[in-house]
């Protein structure tokens, strides 16, 4: 892979309207604060949530740079976002900024899984995630360049030519999406009532308000229909279908594995059933291989 320096990246650009997932290749805490300060202050001016997840030196640098505005910033301990906190502790629909080394310091064998989770699950959301990496560590530098569409340099945001987007047909490992709290076999349409009941129980225990709890139940129902290969005019098609419900501090994730009939398109994201499903959730992804279709639905626990 080509080794990119900030000078090799594209010209400085305005941030896109959706997810900004950028690497900050910088080992000096004061410089990290200077580079990210504009994004932090813009978010604060819009009354959005800002979290800085760094060690004591990093937190001190931000407090010095922000002055009184630092009182409006959350400084959670880095451990509070690991392992299920790959999804930030803020509502992606409301915008906000996260600055931290959570992915770089991931104790797992491959921290790039955390980066790909962010890229895949939060792609449509208005959120800025600034991942701090040590440019002098060759492993960290390579990971940063491979997994971030943007680089935040001293001059501003630049597109990263070394970014390699995660495959749309390679699902994020379920372990990064929180603890599994319920599983259920759904072999036919008669079992859908049990699916709805199970998801409703989890949603209630997770503290979702009634409206969002109802939405996650409907989303799980539609996700299982879609996973089975059913279209908008048919009921669940019989097969070896499974429901897995996972919970993180920020979201409920329902995972539906289905066995659609042979000849079903692999990842038909423009399928009317998928478009219908997205009405009931914050985010949905579809992955498939020759034998099964995996549909994941994410709903935040708060608005």
TrEMBL record:
Q: Which UniProt keywords apply?
A: Kinase, Transferase
Picking any one GO molecular function of the record gives: kinase activity
Q: What is this protein called?
A: Sensor histidine kinase
């Amino acid at each position: 892979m080509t080794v990119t320096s900030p000078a090799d990246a594209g010209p400085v650009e305005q941030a896109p309207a959706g997810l900004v997932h950028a690497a900050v290749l910088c080992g000096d805490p004061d410089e990290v604060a200077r580079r990210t300060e504009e994004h932090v202050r813009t978010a604060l001016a819009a009354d959005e949530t800002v979290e800085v997840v760094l060690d004591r030196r990093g937190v001190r640098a931000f407090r010095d740079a922000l002055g009184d505005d630092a009182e409006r910033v959350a400084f959670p301990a880095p451990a509070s976002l690991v392992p299920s906190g790959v999804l930030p502790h803020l509502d992606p629909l409301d915008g906000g900024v996260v600055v931290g080394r959570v992915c770089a310091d991931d104790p797992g064998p491959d921290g790039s899984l955390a980066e790909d989770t962010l890229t895949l699950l939060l792609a449509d959301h208005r959120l800025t995630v600034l991942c701090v990496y040590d440019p002098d560590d060759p492993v960290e530098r390579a990971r940063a360049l491979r997994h971030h569409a943007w680089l935040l340099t001293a001059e501003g945001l630049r597109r990263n030519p070394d970014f390699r987007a995660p495959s749309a047909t390679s699902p994020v490992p379920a372990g990064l999406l929180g603890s599994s709290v319920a599983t259920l076999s759904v072999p036919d349409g008669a079992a859908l009532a049990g699916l709805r009941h199970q998801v409703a129980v989890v949603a209630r225990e997770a503290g979702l308000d009634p409206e969002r709890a109802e939405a996650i139940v409907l989303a799980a129902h539609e996700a299982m229909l879609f996973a089975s290969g059913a279209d908008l005019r048919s009921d669940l098609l019989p097969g070896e279908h499974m429901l897995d419900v996972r919970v993180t501090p920020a979201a409920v994730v329902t995972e539906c594995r289905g066995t659609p009939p042979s000849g079903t398109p692999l990842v038909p994201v423009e399928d009317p059933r998928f478009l219908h499903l997205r009405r009931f959730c914050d985010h949905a992804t579809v992955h498939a291989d020759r034998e099964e279709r995996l549909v994941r639905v994410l709903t935040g626990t708060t608005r």
